[in-house]
Design goal:
The chain is of the alpha+beta class. The protein has helices at 2-9, 14-38, 41-64, 191-194, and strands at 68-73, 78-84, 114-116, 133-140, 143-145, 149-154, 163-169, 174-179, 186-189. It has four helices and nine strands; from the N terminus they run αααβββββββββα.
Length: 196
């Protein structure tokens, strides 16, 4: 009986070895998945926050009845929200012309200036993870801007011109925040999706 007990405790069975190897493989697979999923986390968070803010600015244009725009300063890696000033009101006491030929029915051709909005959105600020994520470029229609200032505008119906804001992290990982023309829909696309 003693010889039998010592033989069974002397080594591992094949089943025990397979279970240990299986557990090691599973733990390694879970660990590797978590590590690879960690790359680009700051990028995705910044892209989501930027997309949420762009959506808010679109809704703000609708609710205020004033065009809004997000200005990106690519040289300094900051951005802010600006609002179009309403046109100056006509003086109701001004006299009308005596003849219809002198009456212009065309809207005034002046450009309405934009001013920063009065809350925190109107202050220049960096992306939330600015130490890891930066603005790479902004494309509006066919124009690609990689330096200087550029603005993405929202009309009073919430629509916008087609635009893309490209973000890049320190590891070279890219994400683009894409605004669909007219509808104001906002999509976050990673490189694999953006290439299609």
């Amino acid at each position: 009986m003693t010889g039998r007990a010592s033989r069974s405790t002397a080594g591992f069975t094949l089943l025990e070895l397979l279970i240990v190897i299986f557990l090691i493989v599973m733990i390694t697979a879970v660990f590797a998945t978590n590590i690879s999923g960690g790359f680009g986390v700051h990028m995705r968070n910044s892209a989501r926050e930027l997309a949420s803010e762009l959506e808010y600015v679109s809704q703000r244009a609708v609710t205020t009845g004033h065009a809004q725009r997000v200005v990106f300063d690519l040289d300094h890696q900051v951005y802010r929200v600006e609002m179009e000033l309403p046109p100056a009101q006509a003086d109701p006491s001004a006299a009308l012309p005596d003849h219809a030929e002198s009456l212009s029915l065309a809207p005034p051709i002046d450009l309405h200036p934009f001013v920063p909005v009065d809350d925190q959105l109107g202050e220049w600020r960096a992306l939330p993870d600015a130490e890891d994520v930066s603005f790479r470029a902004v494309r509006i229609g066919d124009q690609l801007v990689q330096q200087g200032a550029v603005a993405v505008g929202f009309s009073i119906d919430g629509g916008t011109d087609p635009a893309e804001i490209w973000l890049r992290d320190d590891h070279g990982y890219d994400v683009r925040v894409r605004l669909v023309a007219f509808t104001g829909e906002i999509h976050i696309e990673e490189p694999q999706l953006a290439a299609k």
